[in-house]
Design goal:
This is Matrix metalloproteinase-16. This protein has 149 residues and is α+β, with helices and mostly antiparallel strands. The protein folds into 2 domains: 75 residues, Hemopexin, CATH 2.110.10; 32 residues. It contains 4 helices and 7 strands. The longest helix is centred in the C-terminal third of the chain and has 31 residues. It is elongated and about 95 Å long. About 3% of the residues have low confidence.
Amino acid sequence: YWRYSEEMKTMDPGYPKPITVWKGIPESPQGAFVHKENGFTYFYKGKEYWKFNNQILKVEPGYPRSILKDFMGCDGPTDRDKEGHSPPDDVDIVIKLDNTASTVKAIAIVIPCILALCLLVLVYTVFQFKRKGTPRHILYCKRSMQEWV
């Protein structure tokens, strides 16, 4: 394992060291972090985590525990867990959050539609000017303005 110094932004000298000093954690954990408030080190692998007591250098009793239940709020074991079939260690968890208001969705649809309509009107107007020529009242206004200046 390696130890990184947040203050120095480098790896601490004397690392890497063997992971055998951490008794009770899984072999090849996916990651770990130290909780600054309670001083425990948490190791995780797959959908389980271990709470390691840094004072006595042992995993706390009752671990490993479920990340899904404790951190994600998922209730109870699934049917697959009851049957004894466990999913692979790499599990993708997708959480869909739908907290955008319906007015924001409506605005996100209406504004592009209005802009597209304005663009179509502009293209139609330019096309008409090219096809029929400039309207007479615009030409007359332009000439009369030149004479006046």
